[in-house]
Automatic annotation (TrEMBL):
A Pfam family annotated for this UniProt entry: 60KD_IMP
Localization terms from the record: Membrane
Domain Membrane insertase YidC/Oxa/ALB C-terminal: 57-272
Record's protein name: Membrane insertase YidC/Oxa/ALB C-terminal domain-containing protein
Membrane topology listed for this record: Multi-pass membrane protein
GO molecular function, one term: membrane insertase activity
């Protein structure tokens, strides 16, 4: 089963590659995969949402992020947690199966004169078969626990590319959908009224870095047993979050604003899924990290880990 840290690592490893492909000044010649069905659909959906709601672009982007997270990602996260609970409940049975299989392999080893390698191969082969049967019987394949990750990443990439293309369309009258996108130049908010250009103040990139670090630390604080691998992974992700600040400073504000919103929604969802009342509401059982006051618990853990050293 893939852990939140492992999922973060996979997302992190792809961020720089995605960023490099986006890191060009918007021009009529720099649309990114505009004919790719998912990206094209994302563009049209965001434009339609802007048209129907009549909201300014900054609010439309916020609404897009909230809708994607609450309608698609959150239900899949709950589904993944239900699957993880099923897998956890199977552990005693798996241990019993393993114990029984080892005894059978040991007997066969003596009866058929197998060497150690043959015995090990037979154990692994049969254990895999028995686990597959067990997961099928209980309808809880481990891959189902990664469902939310495999949706989040394509969604994030598709919306990011679509916003990048929309800023190009806004700046280029010769491109299709220019009329629908040109108001991106004056429907920002606060210090970034023009969402087609970079944020010269660096506030959005720094906010994005802060939100990313917050999510990394929140995952880190939930870890019960910290191994060397987990420590190195957390350090790598922290470095990546900081490195992405200057990279995102070269991106259109519309994209970076979406990343900030998406990161904030991820943090809210993670906190909600540690709230015992919500867990009972969606049928999830007790967990070691849940609480009736998850924010208070998070703050106390942070104080204990970072201040009381």
């Amino acid at each position: 089963m893939e852990t939140p840290a492992a999922a973060d690592a996979e997302v992190g490893s792809g961020l720089l590659e995605i960023a490099n492909s986006m890191n060009e000044s918007p021009t009529s010649a720099s649309l990114l995969f505009p004919d790719f069905p998912v990206i094209h659909a994302a563009e049209l959906t965001i434009q339609k949402l802007h048209e129907i709601t009549g909201l300014p672009w900054w609010a439309t982007i916020t609404l897009t992020s909230v809708t994607l997270r609450m309608v698609f990602v959150l239900p899949l996260q709950v589904y993944a947690l239900h699957n993880a609970e099923k897998l956890s409940k199977l552990q005693p049975e798996i241990l019993e199966i393993s114990k029984r299989l080892k005894q059978e392999v040991s007997m066969a080893m003596h009866q058929f004169k197998w060497d150690e390698k043959r015995a090990k191969d037979e154990y692994i082969k049969n254990m895999k078969r028995l686990l597959v049967d067990l997961h099928k019987r209980h309808n809880c394949h481990p891959m189902k626990s990664t469902a939310s990750f495999w949706l989040q990443l394509p969604l994030w990439i598709s919306v990011s590319y679509s916003l990048r293309n929309m800023t190009s369309r806004a700046l280029s009258p010769d491109l299709s959908y220019h009329e629908e996108c040109k108001t991106l130049k004056d429907q920002g908010t606060l210090w970034f009224p023009d969402m087609t250009i970079t944020d010269s103040t660096w506030v959005l990139p720094v906010l994005m870095g802060f939100v990313t670090l917050f999510n990394i630390e929140m995952t880190h604080l939930k870890i019960q047993e910290e191994t060397k691998y987990r420590k190195r992974l957390t350090l790598f992700l922290r470095f990546l979050a900081l490195l992405f600040i200057p990279i995102s400073s070269t991106m259109p504000s519309a994209m970076v604003f979406y990343w900030v919103n998406s990161g904030c929604m991820a943090a809210v969802q993670n906190i909600l899924l540690d709230w015992s009342h919500l867990r009972r509401l969606v049928g999830l059982g007790p967990s070691e990290t849940e609480s009736s006051s998850p924010i208070k618990v998070l703050v106390n853990k942070a104080k204990q880990k970072y201040l009381n050293r």
